[in-house]
Amino acid sequence: MMIDPSRYGKLVYANQGKPSDYHLLNQTIDLRGTIAITRYGGAGRGAKAINAAAFGVVGVLVYTDPLDINDGFMSDTNETYPHSWYLPPTGVERGSYNKDFGDLLTPYLAAKEETYRISPEDITGIPPIPTQPIGFEDAYRLICELDGKKAPDEWQGGFNCTYNFGGPGFKPTSSFNNSDVKLEIFNQGKILNSSNVMGVIRGSVEPDRYVIYGNHRDSWVHGAIDPSSGTAVMLEITRVLGRMVKQGKWRPRRSIIFGSWGAEEFGLIGSAEYTE
């Protein structure tokens, strides 16, 4: 399954991509056939595009605004990684753009090899238009060149320029004048294996009642911090409690189940499928 990867349109700025943002923007600009650039926050990743499609927008760009993540710092490379903890201008936040959780081909069923799967055409919860996350280095160039009315104060961000709605499109003085934005995405749907790693300490009195303690182990990209801290804490707890059980010093009244979830960043697949 692959959404049409090529979309062209004049660019507009839609703040956080909430329904109220598109409604306000549509009072000034005919949004049909445009491409919207939105910042993270306010609405889920997938919702930014689902909300946009209702107004005729054909594609959405999503970026992390320095005001929201970097305390406003963005202009000096010494203010961002690797010189500080702040997100660098090329940094891109990635993640699931699905509205629903789990394997979308097996709603309400555990996604095992033998499980019945619905047709990809019947999947719900995927935005009907393409969406692409970008770094604020690129968003800065695009937003600061936009024409049109000034966006409301609450829409302004960390760039050292005025955030405009867009003409739609760019200022007449911009080198981008009369240019459309071309949005190309090459996403493919594949069925791949992902494993949950489970551990159990059996309860001494009520073994059929249990507490689940879990954390996902896959990250957005190779080398990403998330979820290393949570996984480290969970592993340390399992080490300590497991040693106490082996030494005969302690056993819980109820069972404790530890879950290391897989494929979390693809839509909470591991934990959702375990529950189903």
TrEMBL record:
Q: Which GO terms describe its molecular function?
A: aminopeptidase activity
* Residue intervals of the PA domain: 9-96
Q: What kind of membrane protein is this, topologically? A: Single-pass type II membrane protein
The chain positions of domain Peptidase M28 read 196-275
Q: What is its main location?
A: membrane
Signal peptide (UniProt feature, chain positions): none
Question: Which Gene3D superfamilies does the entry mention?
Answer: 3.50.30.30, Zn peptidases (3.40.630.10)
Q: Which domain of life is it from?
A: Eukaryota
Q: Which UniProt keywords apply?
A: Aminopeptidase, Hydrolase, Protease
Q: Which InterPro entries match?
A: PA_dom_sf (IPR046450), PA_domain (IPR003137), Peptidase_M28 (IPR007484), Peptidase_M28B (IPR039373)
Subcellular localization, as worded in the UniProt entry:
Cell membrane
Alphabetical list of PANTHER family matching this protein: AMINOPEPTIDASE NAALADL1, N-ACETYLATED-ALPHA-LINKED ACIDIC DIPEPTIDASE
Name the record gives this protein: Aminopeptidase naaladl1
**Gene that encodes it:** NAALADL1
